[in-house]
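Today's session is about reading a structure prediction critically. Students often jump straight to the picture, but the first step is always the sequence itself: look for stretches that repeat, for charged clusters, for runs of hydrophobic residues. Only then move on to the predicted structure, which in these notes is written as discrete structure tokens rather than atom positions. Here is the chain we will use throughout the hour.
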Amino acid sequence: MRKNSIKNTRINEEVHRELSNIIRAEIKDPRIHPMTSVVAVEVAPDLKTCKAYISVLGDEEAQKSTLAGLRSAEGYIRRILAKNINLRNTPEVKFIMDQSIAYGVKMSKLIDEVNHGQERKNGSDEEE
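Below is the predicted structure for this chain, in token form.
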């Protein structure tokens, strides 16, 4: 796999910022959950395609409807992106659901449960 150049990293950051703003402020689709965030963006070196990893804070139904809403608005999003970012080619955006935030929250809860279990066990041992 190729290492990202400084130029590609800057483009990724700029597209990430603009996509976040577009999803938050521009799109009025009721299917898109208000707690939708863009986790990461990978723009291809030739600027033809872009993978946008999104995360939705909600149940599985909210995630599916948000993904469907974003996929139906790909053309509109690309047009706004072309207007706001001056690139040679405006990348075609593909949205991919990212479960890393939900996974991290789940793991954090499990770790907290284990820690509380250890504290209770240690507390009962000291009483005896």
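Discussion point for the tutorial: Strands lie at 36-43, 49-56, 92-97.
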